[in-house]
Write a structure and sequence with these properties.
The complex is a heterotetramer of chains A (308), B (513), C (339) and D (356). Chain A is of the alpha/beta class and 308 residues long. In chain A, the strands form 2 sheets. Chain A has a 6-stranded parallel beta sheet with strand order 2-1-3-4-5-11, sandwiched between helices. Classes of the chains: A alpha/beta (308), B alpha/beta (513), C mainly alpha (339), D mainly alpha (356). Chains in contact: A-C, A-D, B-C, B-D, C-D. Bound molecules: adenosine-5'-triphosphate (2 copies) and magnesium ion (2 copies). Chain C: Pfam families: BPD_transp_2.
């Protein structure tokens, strides 16, 4: 496993392969694992030597350390899947000085320093705000006369959580009332507990929808709704589009699933390849995502093309 | 009685612990330039009185005047600042630090860059030298010296504070005669410089030798304050135990030597038992009904030999035969299974299990030999506890109290009960009478003789040559971790014999590994 | 007596100066060097000045936290709140900086907030008999909660603040390639000063000696008349304030922060301290060991990356490396004990 | 006569006040009252035909408390030996992952359960062996296992959050977490039975006393013939096994393991439960009943957070405040306040008299 030696000047490995450092989040199940596995596979297929460095606990510090290490190792390019959208100026400046191109994936990072900005070649990934908007629009459409419901959020403070929330608020109609937003920490199990509590608490308000910011939580909410005997009476909307969620959609446990497409390894590898070959690369590569209802979910599952 | 003004006046001191009134209106007055003894049986409240003075315990009633001013110390720090230096009964030092650091803790010499270690160690050396410990390098880890020496280190530490009052709670319990004399020399010097010394000891000889005045306690109550020179022994003992001294069972005469019949097999027969760096190979046999005394100076290796016999340490040489059968005593469990028990000299660290009750402490060894899942039936347990509480006269007679709340002497009795409950064939007693009052000491000595009479083999380790000579059938003399002699203890043998043997035998140190 | 005692203890053999207590720390030194050599031999980048530079710059905060954590651990306590204190001070600091408060004042306020949490922990421990683990676990929850109540945004420093003085890099050796430059910054200097401070505190002040004494036996320390209570306050005050200092260094370095910063750092700090040879039950250990521990802990992550450890396996491998480390230490100690 | 009765009454009150359990129960009741104020039907129970059991906020709370009961019980024994087990949360994840992964690959559900329990026990045994045989420090050993355990869970599922909710024949496991026995949550009943069994094992045999003895004074225990290594090994093994049960409860609840979230931070909750229950982290005397109450309180605090709708941001702070209040109320200083003031006053008066 310890084959690649980066002592060569250009950073290329012995085999002449270009070395790419991947500053990653680490396997967390669901979206994240699918995304990182796809990127790893795609770069392998494209003939790169991908060095993968995950963090723990979403700790940005470990990512910064890994990033700086890649700069010191003089890799040919760095893929950055950041846990935070700021705090990268210094590291990017170093990359710029070392003339290492950086590609941000999934989450965009905010950079103030103009020197640092130069390091970033391109951003590749789907849009969280868009996903939030889709959820709001589905609720608006389903309940033209208004409705009550809950939002299950991810851990407080993550920018994904904020962006999905912002997207929702941007589009949600005024007659849709969110009784309460609670965090269920992206966890199925916690979502079940939280939802059970909320259903008890707001029994009299007749909640009709639950917007879960990811599939995991949506599946937990569905179980709580089922246990309370409200299956079908409460519409559950989730974001991500994992196979499990689509299956639940087909089974009627969920009502609407918005894909947050993790499969963009190919696009990323292509962008890196193009850039290293001297071609120009688009600054912002938006990854298309779909939305699913029961019918389209069945179709997607049946044709067996879903990778995650 | 005297025209000096007292330095400490304690009046009507009362201290209650949940369920016990440890002190009930006790008075104590200390005068500068005097050695004052606090007398009483185990559990009389001596240590508690001391802790009341130094602010370790909060008093429920009473007043304390130091230098004429009412004081309420909130801890030993305050007491120290008021000029009271204390050496507590159980050695209270930090085993993770060096000897020198322990002596100087809180009084390190400071230079321009914080503590000046060179000066500090030099100072430590002089204080240690005062205690006759000039051979100890202040850098030696405290954990590597014996309990007795730790006691001396603790006293050296007390000398660092330029105290007006020096309190010594049973400082002599683990010292041998020479060291006691040296300690007394220092005490006299300190006393003559005008310091008031409060002294606790169960050795009456010492009391009569060094003290000027006595305060007698019994059961937490103040009995009397007297001048030592005006109080005959019998009267003193009478005041302490509340009955006349004559009633005290005394084993005056030396035990008649138990003759080993020819062809008799020993319980224990070890050959060349030793451990590198701790004790050199020793041959030893112990017969049923025999008391074998271990004599020697501090650090001569008596404890180490006892521990090897019990498997508390693993020997690295020698053979071990038990009733004619070769055994491998690799740990205390095996030893207990083979009916060997060992009562430690280090009561606090290796003896009591502080938070457990007296009952549990008494039963735990028996329980351990039977196995975790075979609890001792309640009836049997009650009977055992009851028996030894009575036989050993443990006070207070409440077995459901945590053992840590008992006075030192009573803890010791409970521990002896623990070992007796396992019905050993060989009982190794390491300093069993240390810190025990005269009454209880006689009781324990009697217990040893009774056990031997019933056929138990007993190893009796004690720093008091007098009791070793009086109780033993055979005496093994140790010096510098070698067994140098085995003395058949007949009428010709006296303490002097042993002392001469130790002084005149040269240990061939070349043999040491 | 002189004759009696003279043979009680043999004069210690000259030459054997190394204290047994120092063996684990020395083991840490040796293993750290071995790891660097191994990394260099296999991947050829571990002796690059750039690598060394970022090892220190990126982990200045961890060095500070390791020193901070050493104090409570030496007494047999622990301070679990350091990570959360980094978070709350960072969030407050950035909020204030963005509100236009001068940087120096911001830094002072950050340190004060740290001190307040330390004081709280000290009070809970000393006045209400809470065990350090629980007391600092509570202050950890409290600090983390307050941090997220104040803001869950990613905050960045406004232009023209003076925090960048701390992060400004000082090139000591400037080569054409950044990966061969030797660079430090003020943060690293602060970290080194903290180490010196820790060393002096522990070894050249009475407070330091009291810390060791408490670790040996608190009740003995009390009976010896040492100021145990005051020292306990000092310990938790210092560790929390140093955590705030780590926060200053860290936030200055990356120029931003948010409420989620520092999750799990307390465990990294504990691991560093333990790797450095300090015994978790107190009494034995050295600040310098903790610093080495921090460096060892830091180097584990790049090693796993370079070894190409699969993602799922990384924490297992890191765990195993720490395990090998403590087992080795234990073995070295066992051999030392035998001697 | 009346005097005496009053005095006895006072003594009883004093005894109650200085008992940790009293304060824990009081805290629990207080939390329930607060919740009822916020949500008037908090205490209401109804029959849910869907699940075949009682339904209501208290019921879901009990359901959640089952896993805390398990890890707190194991933690109590470990802490009693003056150790700590930081790995329980990770063990939950590993055991859950093993169950879900095998189940979704067609293993019989009972076999899956056994595998999960065996995995937990095995990790516990490794902890035990490292602590007892190699003499490593418990804190660092279990910290390592906490890291490694997370990794193991990920390795087992290849980083996925394996879902076995749709696997045929999973009913027994599902029932374990979601079912009811006589209307009461099955997992709570099972957990309670296990706690009682462990309690009986400890107190009806000499195990409890020996564990305490080792925690109080390991060397002295060795000298009495106890084998401290055996005891240490045993408690970590038990803790691992119970954590595996907790892991089954947590994952079977949604029939899905979350490699990152399952059991995350639960070691801290378990330790809190133990301390709230009155067992000292320094080792020694332990109280399983206290820890059980502590575990239920933890579940209740979490329920309160949901019921009051406390913001996600503020939850840790709320948690901290409740814990601090409980611990402060348990402090001896607080219950002795009255007596202490009386004592001081008396002494002052005496001192004045003497000075005069
Ligand atoms: N912390 C405590 N809690 C409860 N009871 C205690 C405590 N400390 C001492 N006692 C009790 O107070 C009484 C006096 O004990 P103390 O230690 O003062 O006796 P002593 O005279 O020093 O005896 P010894 O000669 O054995 O050392 C004993 O009955 C003891 O059980
Ligand atoms: N824990 C220990 N570690 C290392 N060396 C020790 C330890 N305890 C004692 N020693 C040393 O071992 C030697 C023998 O001590 P031991 O305690 O056996 O003597 P002793 O004859 O029993 O005397 P006493 O018990 O009266 O001190 C001494 O030199 C002592 O310094
Ligand atoms: Mg005493
Ligand atoms: Mg001895």
């Amino acid at each position: 496993a310890c084959g690649s030696s980066n002592s060569g000047d250009g950073g290329s490995s012995d085999s002449g392969k270009k070395v790419v450092g991947f500053v990653a989040v680490g396997p967390e199940g669901g979206f994240r694992t699918a995304n990182e596995d796809d990127i790893k596979a795609a770069f392998k297929d494209a003939g790169f030597d991908l060095q993968y460095s995950p963090t723990q606990n979403n700790d940005q510090q470990k990512q910064i350390q890994a990033f700086n290490k890649f700069v010191n190792d003089e890799v040919d390019a760095i893929i950055l899947s950041s846990t935070e959208d700021s705090g990268w100026d210094d590291s990017l400046k170093k990359a710029a000085e070392a003339e290492i191109p950086v590609f941000t994936v999934d989450r965009n990072v905010e950079v103030k320093d103009s020197e640092a900005k130069k390091a970033i070649v391109s951003h590749i990934g789907p849009s969280n705000e868009w996903a939030g908007q889709q959820a709001a629009e589905f609720v608006n459409k389903s309940f033209p006369d208004g409705a009550n419901g809950f939002i299950l959020e991810g851990p407080a403070g993550l920018s994904v959580v904020k962006d999905r929330g912002t997207g929702w608020s941007d589009k949600v109609a005024s007659n849709i009332k969110v009784l309460e937003s609670q965090s269920a920490n992206w966890s199925t199990d916690e979502a079940k507990t939280v939802t059970a509590g909320l259903l008890d608490k707001y029994k009299s308000e007749n909640p009709q929808f639950i917007f879960a910011q990811n599939d995991e939580m949506g599946l937990g909410a569905a179980q709580a709704v089922d246990a309370a005997g409200l299956k079908g009476k409460v519409k559950i909307i989730t974001i991500d589009g994992t196979k499990n969620a689509l299956q639940a959609l087909v089974d009627g446990d969920l009502s609407f699933v918005i894909e947050y497409n993790p499969i963009f390894g190919k696009e990323t590898a292509q962008a890196v390849k193009d850039y290293l070959d001297g071609k120009t690369v688009e600054k912002d590569i938006q990854i298309e995502s779909k939305t699913f209802d029961a019918a389209s979910a069945k179709e997607a599952l049946d044709n067996g093309s879903r990778a995650y | 009685m005297t025209d000096k003004t007292p330095i400490v006046v304690m009046k009507g001191i009362t201290i209650e612990f949940p369920g016990v009134k440890a002190l009930d209106g006790v008075d104590l007055t200390l005068y500068p330039g005097e050695v004052h003894a606090l007398m009483g049986e185990n559990g009389a409240g001596k240590s508690t009185m001391i802790k009341a003075l130094t602010g370790v315990y909060k008093i429920n009633a009473g007043t304390i005047l130091v230098d004429g001013k009412p004081q309420q110390f909130n801890g030993t720090l305050d007491a120290q600042n008021a000029g009271i230096a204390t050496v507590y009964q159980e050695v209270n030092l930090c085993t993770n630090l060096s000897v020198g650091e322990n002596v100087m803790l809180g009084h390190e010499k400071r230079g321009p860059f914080g503590i000046d270690w060179k000066k500090t160690h030099e100072a430590a050396k002089t204080y240690l030298a005062q205690m006759g410990l000039e051979a100890i390098d202040p850098h030696t880890p405290l954990s590597s010296i014996s309990i007795a020496m730790q006691q001396l280190v603790a006293i050296a530490r007390a000398m660092v504070i330029n105290a007006k009052v020096l309190i010594l709670d049973e400082p002599t319990s683990s010292l041998d005669a020479n060291e006691v004399q040296d300690l007394f020399k220092i005490m006299r010097k300190v006393r003559d410089s005008g310091v008031a010394i409060l002294f606790v000891s169960h050795f009456l000889d010492q009391i009569y030798e060094i003290t000027d005045r006595l305060t007698i306690l019994r059961n937490g109550k103040f009995i009397k304050e007297v001048m030592t020179k005006d109080t005959p022994r019998d009267e003193l003992i009478g005041m302490m135990i509340g009955k006349s001294a004559a009633e005290l069972s005394q084993i005056g005469a030396k035990k008649a030597r138990r003759e080993i019949k020819s062809g008799e097999k020993p319980i224990v027969d070890v050959k060349g038992l030793g451990k590198k760096g701790t004790i050199n190979p020793v041959d030893l046999d112990i017969y049923s009904g025999e008391v074998v005394g271990f004599a020697g100076l501090l650090g001569s290796g008596r404890t180490e030999l006892g521990r090897l016999l019990f498997g508390a340490d693993k020997p690295d040489s020698g053979t071990y035969e038990l009733n004619g059968k070769q055994v491998n005593i690799s740990d205390p469990y095996t030893a207990l299974k083979n009916k060997i028990a060992y009562s430690t000299e280090n009561r606090r660290d290796e003896g009591i299990i502080g938070d457990l009750t007296v009952r549990q402490n008494m039963l735990i060894a028996l329980q351990a030999t039977r196995g975790m899942f075979k609890p001792i039936p309640k009836k049997e347990a009650d009977a055992i506890v009851d028996k030894y509480m009575k036989e050993l006269n443990v006070r207070p007679a409440d077995p459901d109290r945590p053992i840590k709340n008992l006075s030192g002497g009573n803890q010791q009795k409970v521990l002896i009960g623990r070992w007796l409950a396992t019905h050993p064939e060989l009982l190794i007693l390491d300093e069993p009478t240390r810190g025990i009052d005269i009454g209880a000491k006689a009781e324990i000595q009697q217990v040893v003789l009774d056990l031997a009479a019933k056929g138990m083999g007993v190893v009796f380790i004690s720093s008091e040559l007098e009791e070793v000579v009086r109780l033993s059938d055979d005496i093994e003399v140790l010096k510098d971790r070698h067994k140098i002699a085995e003395i058949e203890n007949d009428d010709t043998v006296s303490q002097a014999t042993i002392v001469e043997t130790i002084a005149n035998t040269n240990v061939n140190t070349g043999k040491e590994a | 007596m002189t004759t009696a005692t003279a043979n009680k203890v043999k004069a210690p053999k000259k030459g054997f100066k190394i204290d047994r207590q120092m063996i684990p720390t020395l083991a840490a030194v040796v293993i750290f060097i071995l790891m660097i050599i191994m990394g260099q031999a296999m991947f050829g980048t571990y002796l690059r000045l750039g690598f060394v530079s970022s090892l220190f710059i990126d982990h200045a905060y961890l060095i500070i936290l390791a020193v901070a954590m050493t104090l409570p651990i030496l007494t047999g306590g622990i301070d679990l709140s350091v990570g959360a204190i980094v978070a709350i001070t960072a969030v407050v600091g950035l909020k204030l900086a963005n509100a236009g408060v001068p940087s120096v004042l911001v830094m002072i306020i950050m340190l004060l907030i740290g001190a307040v949490f330390g004081l709280l922990a000290g009070t809970l421990i000393e006045e209400f008999n809470m065990q350090p683990f629980i007391a600092t676990l509570s202050t950890m929850f409290l600090a983390r909660g307050l941090a997220s109540i104040i803001s869950t945004d990613s905050l960045t420093f406004p232009d023209g603040n003076n925090f960048n003085i701390i992060s400004a890099e000082i090139k000591i050796i400037d080569r054409p390639k950044i990966s061969h430059d030797l660079t430090i910054n003020v943060g690293v200097i602060i970290a080194l000063l903290v180490v010196v401070f820790g060393y002096i505190l522990l070894h050249h002040t009475r407070t330091g000696r009291t810390i060791y004494a408490i670790g040996g036996s608190r009740s003995s320390a009390e009976l010896m008349g040492l100021p145990v209570k005051r020292t306990q306050y000092i310990i938790y005050l210092t560790s929390a304030t140093l955590a705030a200092l780590a926060s200053i260094v860290y936030t200055a370095n990356i120029g931003s922060a948010k409420n989620t910063v520092g999750v799990g750092w307390e465990l990294d700090a504990v691991a560093s301290v333990v790797i450095g040879g300090t015994i978790i039950t107190g009494g034995f250990g050295y600040v310098l060991g903790s610093v080495l521990g921090a460096l060892v802990r830091s180097i584990l992550d790049p090693l796993t990356t370079d070894l190409g450890v699969p993602a799922e396996w990384t924490t297992i491998v890191i765990g195993l490396m720490i395990l090998v480390f403590v087992v080795l230490q234990r073995a070295v100690m066992a051999v030392g004990e035998k001697k | 006569m009346a005097e005496k009765a009053k005095e006895e009454g006072n003594a009883l009150v004093k005894k109650l006040l200085s008992n940790n359990l009293t304060w824990s129960v009081l805290a629990f009741i207080l939390l329930v009252i607060v919740c009822t104020i916020f949500q008037h039907d908090f205490l209401a129970l109804s029959w849910n035909d869907n699940t075949g059991g009682l339904a209501g906020p208290l019921i879901t709370m009990l359901q959640e408390s089952a896993r805390y009961l398990m890890i707190a019980t194991g933690m109590t024994l470990v802490i009693s030996t003056a150790g700590i087990d930081l790995s329980v949360g990770s063990v939950m994840a590993v055991a859950g992952a093993a169950a879900m992964q095998t189940l979704s690959h067609g293993t019989n559900v009972w076999v899956s359960i056994l595998i999960a329990l065996a995995v937990g026990l095995a990790i516990g045994c490794i902890n035990g062996a490292l602590v007892s045989l190699l003499g490593l420090q418990p804190f660092i050993t279990t910290l390592i296992m906490m890291l490694a355990g997370r990794g193991m869970a990920k390795v087992i599922t290849s980083g996925q959050n394996t879902d076995a909710s749709a696997v045929a024949g999973n009913e027994p496991l599902k029932w374990l977490a979601n079912g009811f026995i006589l209307g009461i949550p099955a997992n709570f009943v099972i957990a309670l039975v296990i706690v009682i069994l462990v309690g009986l094992l400890c107190r009806k045999t000499a195990m409890g006393m020996m564990i305490e003895a080792v925690g109080i004074n390991q060397e002295a225990s060795r000298m009495t013939g106890i084998k401290p290594r055996k005891i240490l090994f045993l408690v970590y093994a038990i803790s691992g096994f119970l954590a595996a049960i907790a892991g089954l409860f947590a994952t079977a609840s949604v029939m899905r393991v979350d490699v990152v979230k399952t059991g995350q931070d639960l070691e801290m909750y378990a330790i809190l439960a133990v301390v709230i229950g009155g067992t000292s982290l320094l080792g020694g005397k332990f109280s399983l009943a206290g820890s059980a109450v502590g575990a239920v309180i933890i579940a209740m605090i979490r329920k309160t957070i949901i019921t009051l709708g406390i913001n996600a941001e503020a939850t840790p702070a709320f948690f901290a405040i409740v814990v601090i209040v409980i611990c402060v109320m348990q402090a001896p200083k607080i219950h002795n306040l009255g007596a202490e003031m009386k004592r001081k006053r008396a002494l002052k008066a005496q001192a004045k008299a003497v000075a005069a």
